[in-house]
TrEMBL record:
Protein name: Guanine-specific ribonuclease N1 and T1
Signal peptide segment: 1-35
PROSITE patterns, per the entry: PROKAR_LIPOPROTEIN
Keyword rRNA processing: no
Classification via SUPFAM superfamilies: Microbial ribonucleases
Length: 164
């Protein structure tokens, strides 16, 4: 395969960008003068590659609720669209534990600077078990002191704001 040495996360981002371009081209319309008016750019993308997710700045699919201010400009995912293991971790966070890994609940440093900059100690991370992985895997939920929840499945390279 010609992409053998390319990181999977980069290939995933390119594929997501291509899908987004195709979806936006469909929303913008390809017809002539008699074509129906196109949807606003902030509308959710029908047929999204991942059910329950939306593109940055869009409303939550399946509802008319706009994302909270802390999620503005980020990709979002409804909590009920997360993998079952992530939903289980959300329930544990709500209960205050107990957690499966000693690192759960520890400070997340945000060294990648993907999440909004905050003072050290603002964010905390929790492991989301990945079936088939022998270690902690790449999936995490990161919480913020302001009630924010973020989900990553690529070990902090990208995040989606979790809408609960």
């Amino acid at each position: 395969m010609i992409f053998r040495d390319v990181p999977r996360s980069l290939l995933r981002r390119v594929a997501e960008a291509l899908l987004l371009c195709v979806a936006l081209a469909g929303v913008a319309g390809c017809g002539g003068q008699n074509a129906a008016p196109s949807a606003p750019a902030s509308a959710s993308v029908p047929g999204s590659a991942v059910p329950g997710t939306s593109v940055p700045g869009s409303s939550v699919p399946g509802s008319s609720v706009a994302p909270p201010a802390w999620a503005k400009g980020m990709a979002t995912v409804r909590a009920d669209a997360l993998p079952v293991q992530a939903r289980d971790v959300l329930a544990l966070i709500d209960k205050g534990g107990p957690y499966a890994y000693r690192q759960d609940g520890t400070v997340f440093g945000n060294f990648e600077k993907v999440l909004p900059q905050q003072k050290r100690g603002y964010y905390h991370e929790f492991t989301v078990r990945t079936p088939g992985e022998r270690d902690r895997g790449a999936r995490r939920i990161v919480t913020g002191e302001g009630g924010e929840f973020y989900y990553t499945d690529d070990h902090y390279e990208t995040f989606k704001a979790v809408l609960r």
